[in-house]
Amino acid sequence: MRAAARPRTGRRFTLRATPGFWVVLALLIMTEEGYGLSLLFFAAAVCHELGHLLAAWAMGLPVEELTLSAVGAELRIRHGCAWPGELALALAGPGMNLLLALGCCRLAGETGQLFAGANIVLACFNLLPVPPLDGGQAVRLLLGRLFPGRGGWRTARAVADLTCGGAVGAGLWLAWRGHPALLRLGRWLTRGRIRGE
Question: Is this structure's pTM higher than 0.85?
């Protein structure tokens, strides 16, 4: 599906949803168990991408396409910007989640607290220093400034490798005790780190 969306600033971009996105959305709607919590996480993910989008518009960056998929979303921008802008753009999504969590944790009721929790989990996950996550991009930019040349890139790779190794190691230990979820996360992070090279 492709649809042209027009923000209030008058800029146009293409909104695209992959088949996997519609499958996941249909499963969320049809599944009764955990239905509300799944939709809260989905809403938090939408707000996360909205943070990136608003940051791009605020910096005057031309957004070409926003792609929604089964594993998240990707914002494609026509051209880059200086490193402070790139850093702000990378952190805008987690920043939006943390702001929403701060606001929603004060709301009375279980739904507001669950939405706050979903935003905190999503922000912390995206801040992991592994590409292609936002944290991986932020660490690469910061280390690139501290260690010019290939030194920053190599250090960022080492940080990502240590993070993936720690997740896989902890996941193996927990899987041995009957809890395999972290091992799946470690495998996903490792694949993402390899593809993010």
Answer: no
